[in-house]
Amino acid sequence: MFSLTNMLISASAGTGKTYQLSLRFLGLLALNHGSHPERLIAITFTRKAAGEFKDRILTDLAAGATDEEGAQRLKEQLWTVIKGTPGEPGIWPGATEAWKAENLHRERFRHLLHILVQNLARLNLCTIDSLFAQIASTSTFELGVSGFSMIDTTAEKLARREALLSLYRECSVNRERRRNFEDAFLSGADSDAEAADAEDSMMRRLNTYHELFLDEPDAGTWGNPVALGFTPEELPPPVPLEQFDAVLHAVAFQAQQAPAPEGKNGSKSKELFLRFLNGFSQYARLGRVRFRTDGGSSWNITVEEAREKFKDFWSPPLEELIQSWLRMEVLQALRRTRATHGLMLLFEGKYSSLVRNKGRFLFHDVTRMLGGGAVTPELKRDLQYRMYCRYDHWMLDEFQDTSQSQWRVIKPFLDDLTESKAGSEGSIFVVGDIKQSVYQWRGGDPELFRSVSTQLQLEERGMSTSYRSVQPVLDLVNDICDYARTAPDCEPAALEQWGEYPEHRCAPHLEGRSGVSQIWQTPKAEASTANDLVCQAAADILERTGALRRGLETAILVSTKNQALAIKTWLTDHGVPAEVCDDVPVGVDSPLGKNLLYFFRWLLMPGDPFAAGLLIHSPLRPLVTPERPEGMDWKAWRLLLERDGYAAVMEELERRLARTGTRLDGYFCGRRAARAGVLLQA
Fold first, then answer.
1. How far is the CA of 136 from the CAs of 65, 133, 143, 362, 395, in angstroms?
2. What pLDDT, in 10s, does the model give residues 14-68?
3. How far is CA 360 from CA 366, 405, 503, in A?
4. I need a surface site. Which of 80, 521, 548, 564 has the fewest CB within 10 A?
5. Do residues 69 and 129 make contact, with C-beta atoms less than 8 angstroms apart?
6. Rounded average pLDDT over 354-374
């Protein structure tokens, strides 16, 4: 019996994280002599990452099983991971050269590959959502649900709409509830577009409110001034609305009688100030200061901004009026918050009767159920029988995106490994990067990554050599993230954000390669919008780098889809070819892609009449007609897929299309020309 190293790796982008994970998996498989590969579990956050992980494992192992050169290369890679290097612990630092010679060679790799292929369907290389769904599906009794199935997003949206409609009908017959419904869903539209699309706006607000309600269902925390830190002295009763209106009228009258400030913009400033005062008259409905400029555009302004902008008109009565308005705003917001909780309580009952009470769940429903304490010691013990395996070796990818509720589900299993497991029976391997924490919007807590090594007693290691980026790009990353070096006088919290930040360097084979990274700030200009300046800067960069002349593809990342559409329109109007990637779904962005997609759907589901019908009416029909010389039946195509994989099927498709005088590139161009002709005619 030997002791394995539990490890936490902080791995930046491009440093070989997937490489390390796949070698860790293969190293553990070799240590176990290939037995029970289903007891090794690797968890990540996306199906794409899980697929890449599985592909990397099989590719590396196949390379080691093919010839002696590949076997020698894999042998040295695995030995580095298993034995470790000076300063970097391995899985089993006590491994001997005799063990290496006996277990890391081509025949053993062939044996391990055979075992993996035989058990491919049982391998636990999955997303965290799919793992939780497996646990929940075998724990319906403990969760108190009558059944379990995952609901698709379309059905879930329809159920939400039906529950919201039922809530509206119930509120419409009660005056107070109707007012609460209007305050929660209809008042204070954030934009004219939101006001124009009331149903879409209501659904967005509903999703936000409902998530908050599920996370915090206690009514005592909704609209409670004490819970928010207010004291009774800070929220005295505001002046009556009649008195407020009288003071507001007096201040407005005084401003009208006063002369405009000197200067060319004096009259305009006075007019804006009067519009600002008029915005308070909308308080009873909207609860915010909002007015329109001369051009008709809507303008929301904070008190601090107004105090600075209208300092020539500010007065003690106006300041007192503002403070009273703020108290009214806070009290109204607290009342609306309490009322919204009551609405969500009603909505949850209606929504649950349509979805959850029927055993239909979304992934975040499952996480919330399991994270609420459902994973008891008794359930943990039973799960290995219900799920037909137990997990002895855990590999957690992208751990910086793990939420507290997800951690409450996983941690009990890991505690078993650190407390009761001994020797080679179990191990833990955690990988993440604080800088890549992109799921905080759905509860991801990067602080977990900082504390997990202490909680589970993991050895820490960093990876800062990039195999993807050139040094000029990494220099910019170093300047941004290494606060201790570039901004030593900043707040202590910022210095603690990254801890001891290691300098990132490119791999040796990338040294000396050219590259550039630059932060460019949009200059202020009254005659141009921000998007115009960004677009012009992008066009200048493309011109300076010669990207179009050199045939290079260029990506422009923006915050919103509307901004992407605006930039795309500007670039195309100025002769720069551009597309919005969100509008071009992968695999269905051309007739060829669509037909190939239906072809593979037919291979996987021959009973699907829709896929079969479309395939028969496509140019690929001769290839699936056995009577034609270039055709094969479903059984022959399926056998080729199972035996040689998707790449072999694509190669065979291309060869058989060539027999008909059609080539894939020519076929695509012909279809593109035909589609362009249809568009021109339309």
1. 38, 5, 8, 12, 21
2. 898 888 899 999 999 999 888 889 999 999 988 888 888 889 999 999 999 999 9
3. 10, 20, 48
4. 521
5. no
6. 87
Q: Which residue has the tokens 């309490």?
A: 338
Q: In whole angstroms, what is the distance from residue 336 CA to residue 342 CA?
A: 10
* Residue 506, strand partner residues: 466
Q: Is the distance from CB of 464 to CB of 11 less than 8 angstroms?
A: no
Report residue 194: phi and psi, to 5°: -65, -40
Q: What is the mean pLDDT of residues 290-319?
A: 72
Distances (CA, A) of 492 to 278, 433, 482, 489: 44, 20, 13, 8
Tokens 């491009």 label which residue?
14
DSSP assignment of 613-661, as one string?
A: HHHHTSTTGGGG-TTSTT---HHHHHHHHHHH-HHHHHHHHHHHHHHTT
CB 127 within 8 A of CB 46: yes
SS3 at position 672: helix
Q: Quote the CA–CA distance of 183 and 180 in Å, as a whole number.
A: 5
Half-sphere exposure of residue 102: CA atoms within 13 angstroms, side-chain side: 7
Q: What is the pLDDT of residues 485-525, one digit of tens each?
A: 777 777 777 666 666 788 899 999 999 888 888 887 766 65
Q: Residue 298's CB: how many other CB atoms inside 10 A?
A: 13
Which of the four pLDDT bands, split at 50, 70 and 90, describes residue 283?
very low
* Alpha-carbon distance values, 605 to 443, 599, 600, 635 (Å): 37, 10, 8, 12
Residue 429: strand pairing partners? 7, 395
What are the start-end ranges of the E strands in 403-509?
427-432, 459-463, 465-466, 505-506
Q: What is the pLDDT of residue 540?
A: 86
Q: Which helix (H) or strand (E) holds 220?
A: none
CA–CA distance, 307 with 322 (Å, rounded to integer): 10
The Cα–Cα gap between 399 and 52 comes to 17
Q: Using alpha carbons, select from 437, 393, 469 the residue that is nearest to residue 14.
A: 469
**Which amino acid is located at 589 in the chain?**
D
> Which pLDDT belongs to residue 349?
93
Neighbours of 109 (CB within 10 A): 25
Per the listing, tokens 């093919």 go with 66
DSSP annotation of 557 reads -
Confidence (pLDDT) at 340:
92
Dihedral sign for Cα atoms in the order 636, 642, 648, 654: positive
In this prediction, residues 349-364 reach a mean pLDDT of 89
In tens, the pLDDT along 551-585 reads: 888 888 887 777 888 888 888 888 888 888 765 55
**What is the per-residue pLDDT for 287?**
39
- Residue holding tokens 């249809």? 678
Count the residues in the chain.
682
Closest CA to 123 of 181, 37, 46: 37
Mean pLDDT of 591-595: 77
Instruction: Give the model confidence (pLDDT) of 378-407 as tens digits.
Output: 887 788 777 766 788 999 999 999 999 899
How far is the C-alpha of 615 from the C-alpha of 604, rounded, in Å?
13
Per DSSP, the residues of 342-408 read HHHHHHHHHHHHHTGGGTEE-HHHHHHHIIIII--HHHHHHHHHHTT----EEEE-SGGG-BHHHHH
- pTM for this structure? 0.71
H/E stretch holding 206 reads: helix 198-215
Check residue 284 and give its pLDDT: 40
Q: Which residues contact 565 (CB under 8 A, 6 or more apart)?
A: 580
